[in-house]
Task: inverse folding
């Protein structure tokens, strides 16, 4: 009896769903991002056009991406996930997927194909680093330097960071081993393709820390992406690492005497994950949104507002001018051939394994 | 029974005939209940927001069920293995590992365990992740072999009938319950729904491993995936289990007399067992990932197999669990004891500088006429009302090398431009900024205590011949001690758990233990270690409070007049 009722209800529901597809999508969406210029580029490139097409949809932003993994885990334990779509870096996406906190997606059915019909899995290619990850942008961690503090020979090589004689002054590095250890080994004569093999051994880790020791008392360690741009603008440091988009705004928007080094920039990815276990109506809405927000045009549009490279191969030719400054954005993309002469790809697998171990050594070294 | 003789000696009765004592007790109880009801919201609030999280934290710092829940049979099998022999564990360990890991990978729980064990043994995270992806390959060969023998092995219907046994066969509900429990432990899901399948007890006795894996498969598919097991062939682990079972001479003997459904196909498969691919799980697992040949990885499972572990606490005091018991961590990884020491030392320093700076201010406030002192009080409170982040960032602007203080000193010619002072991103910066931020917590209790000290006492002391200093030190100061006590406790306890200021201005030498706790909670996700560090910090504070009570006496602390 009960079962039969259920069957009827399900059948009716199915028919209704076919007739009025939009009716069973939630109207509210909570998107989680990083705040600042990056979030506003998402707002302008994805959310505003989406709302223009789907009136009545309300989007709430939560600026929690930095703690997304911890918060999502806590929400999941409490059994009340309030987020619909979360912007995270790729390594966090891998961890969320590992922990079962993010939903696995099928790129070809969940994401839009390229304009020429190429399926999404090929358009994103290698950037689909996890089964749960929907890439948006390629960004890089690279160095910026004060043009007025480096004399007549501006640095062209990442090893300038370790050259206190030629470029005296403080430098800013991130307060974590990732990237710093790689740069240290590169500048200690390790070949680029051997860096992670060396870093996997205790001797290699020692070697990297020893190299960092040579500049330790000249380093200001940052933990927020805004620190280095501020320190550069204040003239506190001669050079420092940060995300390329932050340097772009120091150079082009604030017109500070700062230039990009680009050498040995470390590519990383940022993108969306859908939390696991969303109710059907919210899931339907978020899938609809994400398919739109990661299509070729939308990803290319985002580059109008911030200097991060679109994650789709098909978006690259569509990158145009900055919406407010009116300058060509292509030369400011980390993926631009001129900037990408010598690059380094963040090794997700390696750091998933070694991050705790090397971090313990790195922090112990820092505190000494 | 004579009612008239009793009244004087019997209990005094109330108007309705109940003893008065009882009535009184009842009305008192009612009062208590009413009082309880009044404070109930607060009590519940405190329980929910304060006591429960602390209890949860304490529990998390020792909880370690994930290992035995995810790999139950491996944990059992590995207990006989002696890792010190420097040999790989025996075949049964790898066999148990395969079946445990297969189910865990299907339920997507294996990577969680990988993350957990990676805190102890580098590389396990990716070992579990790649194993989860490639584990299907092991079973595929047996599936191919069986289907090659007879296409019936592809049929979900056939398997279902085989595992149910004959219609007359007794159902084996124990096995079903056992597998439910296995899946519940693994997935944290109650798994209680009826799935319309119970394995037959005779077939379960003949093919123990197969029946077990098939039942787990049926339960998981029905409850988690909402699909009927009889619609499709089982997953690879069941084919593997059958190949293992059929290789057992005991099983072959039992099959020869079996009459239930599928018995002919079983006999045919048992007869062809020599053509089956070898059942060598050690080799198969090592082929999936060569790291399974490293004894350290199995060792980590063995060492951390208990449901509860002291491992997080040991990590939190720079020790580690090894095969030979507890030992110190390598020197290049020791950090927490130093950070605990630094946190205590710097908190004390900050408390003292607060006393030094706060005492005179409170004295002035307490001794000025009310109108002026109110004005000054606002100056004390104003920074108190400003955002913490703003104040901390302001110190950055003040103290940095291109900052206000250095610029002024250079402009005055007191300092050479090349030798600007380094006052931030070190301990000095942390102490200055935190002293400033915590100063009101010292001034306010001091002020309220000093207000109650009558000025006439000082005048009396002086009129009796005391010098200014004697009058202050012998008469005034002792009376202000309760204020110092209260202020010190407040400042010290706030300082010891401070996080944001050391993070922003602390650099590398000015960070506190709370910065590492925050790192483990929000970044490395090692909540167990974070909880252990937090618990130790809590215990340290309680111990200090106790000592303080013994030395100074908590009655000597006053927060107000």
Result:
């Amino acid at each position: 009896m009960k079962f039969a009722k259920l069957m009827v209800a399900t059948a009716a529901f199915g028919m209704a769903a076919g007739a009025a597809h939009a009716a069973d999508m939630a109207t509210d969406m909570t998107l989680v991002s990083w705040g600042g210029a990056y979030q506003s580029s998402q707002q302008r490139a994805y959310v505003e056009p989406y709302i223009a097409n789907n009136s009545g949809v309300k989007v709430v932003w939560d600026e929690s991406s930095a703690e997304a993994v911890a918060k999502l885990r806590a929400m999941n334990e409490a059994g009340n996930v309030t987020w619909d779509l979360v912007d995270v870096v790729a390594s966090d996406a891998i961890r969320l997927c590992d922990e079962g906190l993010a939903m696995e997606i099928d790129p070809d059915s969940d994401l839009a194909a390229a304009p020429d019909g190429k399926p999404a899995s090929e358009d994103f290619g290698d950037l689909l680093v996890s089964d749960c990850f929907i890439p948006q942008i390629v960004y890089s961690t690279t160095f910026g330097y004060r043009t007025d503090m480096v004399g007549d020979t501006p640095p062209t090589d990442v090893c300038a960071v370790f050259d206190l004689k030629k470029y005296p002054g403080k430098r800013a590095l991130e307060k974590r081993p990732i990237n710093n250890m790689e740069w240290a080994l590169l500048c200690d004569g390790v070949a680029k393709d051997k860096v992670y093999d060396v870093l996997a051994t205790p001797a290699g880790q020692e070697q990297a820390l020893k190299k960092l020791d040579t500049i330790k008392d000249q380093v200001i360690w940052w933990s927020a992406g805004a620190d280095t741009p501020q320190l550069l603008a204040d003239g506190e440091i001669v050079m420092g690492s940060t995300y390329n988009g932050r340097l772009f705004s120091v150079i082009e928007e604030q017109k500070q005497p700062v230039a990009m080094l680009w050498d040995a920039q470390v590519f990383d990815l940022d993108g969306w994950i859908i939390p696991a276990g969303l109710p059907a109506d919210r899931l339907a809405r978020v899938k609809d949104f994400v398919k739109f927000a990661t299509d070729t045009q939308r990803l290319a549009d985002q580059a109008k507002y911030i200097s991060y490279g679109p994650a789709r191969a098909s978006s690259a030719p569509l990158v145009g001018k900055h919406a407010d400054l009116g300058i060509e954005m292509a030369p400011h993309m980390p993926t631009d051939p001129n900037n990408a002469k010598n690059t380094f790809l963040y090794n997700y697998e390696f750091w998933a394994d070694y991050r705790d171990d090397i971090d313990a050594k790195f922090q112990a070294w820092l505190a000494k | 029974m004579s009612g008239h003789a009793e009244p004087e000696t019997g209990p005094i009765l109330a108007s309705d005939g109940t003893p008065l004592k009882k009535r009184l007790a009842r009305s008192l109880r009612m009062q208590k209940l009413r009082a309880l009801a009044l404070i109930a919201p607060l009590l519940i609030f405190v329980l929910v927001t304060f006591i429960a999280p602390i209890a949860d934290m304490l529990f998390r710092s020792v909880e370690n069920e994930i290992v035995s829940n995810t790999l139950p049979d491996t944990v059992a099998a590995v207990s006989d293995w002696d890792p010190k022999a420097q040999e790989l564990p025996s075949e049964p360990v790898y066999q148990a590992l395969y079946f445990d890991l297969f189910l865990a990978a299907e339920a997507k729980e294996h990577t969680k365990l990988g993350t957990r064990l990676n805190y102890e043994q580098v590389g396990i995270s990716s070992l579990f992740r790649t194993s989860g992806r490639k584990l299907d390959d092991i079973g595929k060969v047996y599936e191919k072999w069986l289907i090659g023998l007879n296409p019936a092995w592809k049929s979900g219907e056939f398997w279902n009938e085989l595992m149910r046994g004959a219609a007359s066969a007794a159902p084996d509900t124990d096995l079903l319950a056992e597998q439910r429990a296995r899946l519940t432990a693994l997935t944290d899901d109650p798994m209680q729904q009826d799935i319309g399948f119970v394995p037959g007890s005779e077939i379960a006795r003949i093919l123990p491993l197969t029946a077990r894996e098939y039942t787990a498969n049926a339960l998981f598919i029905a409850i988690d995936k909402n699909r009927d097991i009889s619609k499709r062939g089982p997953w690879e682990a069941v084919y593997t289990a059958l190949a293992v079972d059929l290789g057992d001479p005991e099983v072959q003997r039992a099959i020869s007399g079996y009459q239930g459904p599928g018995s002919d196909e079983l006999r045919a498969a048992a007869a062809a067992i020599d053509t089956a691919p070898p059942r060598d799980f050690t080799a198969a697992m090592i082929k999936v990932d060569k790291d399974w040949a490293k004894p350290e990885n199995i060792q980590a499972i063995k060492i951390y197999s208990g449901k509860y572990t002291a491992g997080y606490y040991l990590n939190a005091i720079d020790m580690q669990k090894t095969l030979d018991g507890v030992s110190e961590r390598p020197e290049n990884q020791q950090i927490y004891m130093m950070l605990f020491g630094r946190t205590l030392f710097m908190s004390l320093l900050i408390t003292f500088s607060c006393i030094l700076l706060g005492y005179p201010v409170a004295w002035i406030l307490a001794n000025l006429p009310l109108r002026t002192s109110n004005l000054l009080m606002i100056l004390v409170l104003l920074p108190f009302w400003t955002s913490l982040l703003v104040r901390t960032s302001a110190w950055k602007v003040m103290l940095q090398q291109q900052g206000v203080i250095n610029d002024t000193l250079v402009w005055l010619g007191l300092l050479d431009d090349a030798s600007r002072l380094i006052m931030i991103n070190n301990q000095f910066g942390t102490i200055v900024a935190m002293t400033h931020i915590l100063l009101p917590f010292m001034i306010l209790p001091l002020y309220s205590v000093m207000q109650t000290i009558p000025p006439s006492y000082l005048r009396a002391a002086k009129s009796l011949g005391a010098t200014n200093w004697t009058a202050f030190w012998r008469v005034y100061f002792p009376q202000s001690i309760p204020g110092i006590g209260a202020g010190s406790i407040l400042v010290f306890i706030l300082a010891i758990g401070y996080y944001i200021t050391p993070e922003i201005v602390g650099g590398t030498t000015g960070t506190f233990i709370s910065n590492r706790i925050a790192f483990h909670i929000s970044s490395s996700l090692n909540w167990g270690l974070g909880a252990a560090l937090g618990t130790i910090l809590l215990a340290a504070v309680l111990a200090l409070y106790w000592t303080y009570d013994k030395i100074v006496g908590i009655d000597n602390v006053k927060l107000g007049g």
